[in-house]
Design a protein that fits this description.
The protein is mainly α. The protein has six helices and no strands.
């Protein structure tokens, strides 16, 4: 358990860095597109490639945010029936959901690797004026998936061991759907950190 907790701690730190970098990429692409739109409207000129670069930034930023989203249980879940089930059933479903998610993301990661491998083998380039070597954004895209797998494995194992040990509270804290109370508590904590305006 100590090893898994340390692994999760490392995954949490890495996911925090990743989400900041991914968010910065998305903001930079939004800025680039805005400048390009203004230049087109006012001066009838274009930077060229803004749409292509913003597409790469969005794809990379999305995958780099997955691990953080998983650890914060911030993904969207349909819980209309879930909230009425017994705690044991919820815990079993939580672990099963992580397992299915793990299988799905493993398949995605494998396919992302296959796409990158093909791009490297054929020296594939974007059919755009920039002619971007596709391996460049694809490597960064794949890193996001790999970070997600790196985060999911210890989370799944930790939740599974907690379930087998009858520790339903730990299963819920690791993999359960967030309650309205948890959401409200997070918002209140965030609001308390904000400085009042003079």
């Amino acid at each position: 358990m100590i090893l898994l907790d340390r692994w999760l701690g490392l995954a949490d730190r890495l996911s925090r860095y990743a989400i900041w970098i991914g968010g910065a990429l998305v903001l930079a692409s939004a800025f680039l597109v805005s400048v390009d739109v203004l230049l087109r409207k006012l001066f009838l000129i274009s930077l060229g490639g803004a749409d292509e670069l913003s597409g790469y930034a969005f794809a990379i930023g999305t995958t780099w945010a997955l691990a953080f989203t998983l650890l914060r249980r911030a993904n969207v879940r349909v819980d209309a029936l879930y909230i009425h089930l017994p705690r044991v059933a919820c815990a079993i479903l939580d672990v099963a959901a992580l397992l299915v998610l793990g299988l799905f993301i493993a398949l995605l990661t494998w396919q992302a690797w296959a796409v990158l491998d093909t791009s490297l083998a054929f020296d594939a380039r974007a059919t755009t004026p920039l002619a971007t070597p596709l391996w460049m954004p694809q490597v960064l895209w794949l890193i996001g998936f790999c970070l997600f797998v790196f985060t999911l494995v210890p989370l799944l194992l930790r939740a599974l061991f907690a379930l087998l040990g009858g520790d339903l509270a730990t299963v819920r804290s690791l993999a359960g759907a967030r309650t309205i109370e948890e959401e409200a508590a997070d918002e209140a904590a965030h609001t308390a950190t904000l400085k009042p305006r003079d």
